[in-house]
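@channel sequence for tomorrow's demo:
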Amino acid sequence: MIPVLIILGLIALLLTGLPVAFGLATFGTLLIVLKGLPLALIPSNLFGGVNDFVLLAVPLFLLMSNILLRGGVGRDLFVALQSWVGHLPGGLGIAALLSCGVFAAISGSSVTTAATVGTVAIPEMTKRGYGKSFTLGLLAAGGTLGILIPPSIPLIVYGVIAEESIGKLFLAGIGPGLALIVVFGIYAVFASTIGSRASATPKATWPERLRASRRAMPTAILAVIMLGGIYSGAFTPTEASGIGASVALLITVLQRSLSWKGFLAAVRDSVMTTSVIFLIVIGAKIFGRAITLYQIPAQVAHMFEIAGDNRWVFLLIVSIILLFVGLFLESMSMLLIMVPVFLPTVIGLGIDPIWFGVYFVLLIEIALITPPVGLNLFVIQAIAKTGIGTVIKGVTPFVLLMLLIAVTMCLLPGLALFIPFSL
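structure tokens (generated this afternoon):
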């Protein structure tokens, strides 16, 4: 009963409009005080929350993605892919999805992926007759690939919490990420050819394709350098983030696509987002310490033991909780609050923590495109300058497709585990 009361109390506090970071810290502090423990516990959690070398990758990946965003990389990617597939049925939708996939393999951020590709793809797709709600839903859902296809900031944070290999988590995200691209692509072709007025772009000539591909080639090389370096063991994910930010800056400078004003804006946006994330990490650390003092994780594990040693029941309950909590909390908060609660049961039931990390991130991806707190919905709405209802209508089929992939992951764990444990 206590775990339920604490979670409901936290949700009630957050619904007052208090920022998530301060809500977590305030509620955690209150629980510690009610336990009769000294407030001296708090400062150690403030420092310990961010004192991890792996977390250095977060601001560097954000800086890299913001540099690429300001440098117009999204346009180069989309134009290159459009030149190859734009003339096919649903070609612009496929080009947008592939652009999201490639940029996701660089940025690690869902919001940045949606903003980068959406800025370029939305005007072009609507001009070609693609349905507005479909276009906005496709870009909002495609943006979620940014936190599943490696490198992924949420997978980094999960690895820190669960003390699991970041490299293996990255590898495990590849299979489900590619599966999402495939099912999204199939739906995009279907939706843009059945009862749609969408028109294909003129078929590009080979010289046009080669010119566009050459322009986008440095971005593809950056993805290969980062991911190849991580998986070959040449450098760690944290080192990859630093290398990626440096190479991204070099690319945009050599292409003369990033002004000094744009660079300062990229740094400012990265600092602001990093500050928000780290404040949430600190608040979650305090809250996590509090629920540990109240033995909440142990009580939750015991509740599942009483319900029966059944991993399917556990995964069903976890899925329902995350989909519900995702209506009120953004992805990072869900990750930091819920993983410490569920992890002991995950280990007790013999569920692979690497698989669970990817499954967890897939479910919080859905939270990014579900109202009322779906960040990608608001990003796409702002770009398209339209009502939020249009975006929600368009994203609904993609939510169902993501749930289909979640079920597939449960039935076929190898979708996530084959790559990391076969190399």
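heads up for whoever presents: Residues 260-293 form the longest helix (34 residues).
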